[in-house]
Amino acid sequence: MRKLLAFVELLRPQQWVKNAFVLVGLVFGHAWRDPALLWAALAATAAFCLASGAVYAFNDARDAAQDREHPDKRGRPVARGALTPAEAHALAVLASTAGLALAAWAGARVAAIVAAYLVLNAAYTLGLKRVPVADVVAIAAGFMLRLLAGTLGIGIAPSNWLLACGFLLTLFLGFAKRRAELERLSEGAGEHRPVLEAYTTGFLDKAIALCAVAMVAAYAWYTVAAETVRIHGTERLVLTVPWVLLGTARYLYRLRYRGGGGDPAVELLRDPLLAAAVAGWAATVLWVIG
């Protein structure tokens, strides 16, 4: 039983909330009333859950020795000895195969996108994560593939505005994660994550500020664009902008003054105001366009 729980833990199901990105196109494309598209989107989301679990297992198998020296990662199944690297690799193969099979059921384009996600993350684990800026761009690209799976992959035309906002959001979160790691690990940061040796807090603060401003501006422009009003049949989507501003400002506050920002999923659980901002945004979106 302990080993089974260790296998489940290795897949990091608590991180699967990130795969909700696949469903964004379903909402903003007004496609939730189509049963075929709804089931395809849900299958694509499940496929990404398995694929991301496979990526986590592969990464943990590769980095077990390094993780044992990390204050947070030392408790992961392979690092603490609950599973061997070979078992983690086997689970990665099994999960990725299952994810691709489920993606193929959702459609050939979804399968191709999931395959691209697996290749991208293999490249990240094997080298890209050591290249400054490229490491964050690779993470953001993974989220963009999620968006594409839930739009282009299942037959919903992707909005350029949606893709731009999604990319800027994930860049913002990626640079924030590096800033949080640099702050938490201090002088030994490079030993735990080599790419951190190439970053400074000054550079990361500027990158975070740039992405935050661009993200909020792009989203605000999207809500009032003529194309958006035509698609949704309302000008009231602008009412969601205050929630975006609140969530962004609160996340920056958590990053700079509360030692947060390392993991968006954890931040949502720890900060009621941040969670309220996300819930308020989602509720307002559904009210306006539903």
Report on this model:
The chain is globular. The model has no long low-confidence stretch (mean pLDDT 89). The protein has a domain at 1-158: UbiA prenyltransferase (Tetracycline Repressor, domain 2), CATH 1.10.357. It contains 14 helices and no strands. The protein is an all-alpha fold and 290 residues long. Helix 5 (85-106) packs antiparallel against helix 6 and helix 6 (108-126) packs antiparallel against helix 7 (134-149). It has helices spanning 2-10, 24-28, 35-62, 64-67, 85-106, 108-126, 134-149, 160-185, 189-192, 201-224, 226-232, 241-257, 264-270, 272-289.
CATH superfamily of the domain at 1-158: UbiA prenyltransferase
Compute the gyration radius: what is it? 19 Å
Q: Quote the distance from N terminus to C terminus.
A: 44 Å
> What is the name of the CATH architecture of the domain at 1-158?
Orthogonal Bundle
Which geometry do the CA atoms define? globular
In the CATH scheme, the class of the domain at 1-158 would be Mainly Alpha
Low-confidence stretches: none
Query: Would you count the extended β strands for me?
Result: 0
The CATH topology of the domain at 1-158 is given as: Tetracycline Repressor, domain 2
Q: SS-based structural class?
A: mainly alpha
Please outline the helices and strands.
Elements: H1 2-10, H2 24-28, H3 35-62, H4 64-67, H5 85-106, H6 108-126, H7 134-149, H8 160-185, H9 189-192, H10 201-224, H11 226-232, H12 241-257, H13 264-270, H14 272-289
Helix pairs in contact: 3-5, 3-6, 5-6, 6-7, 7-8, 8-10, 10-12, 12-14, 13-14
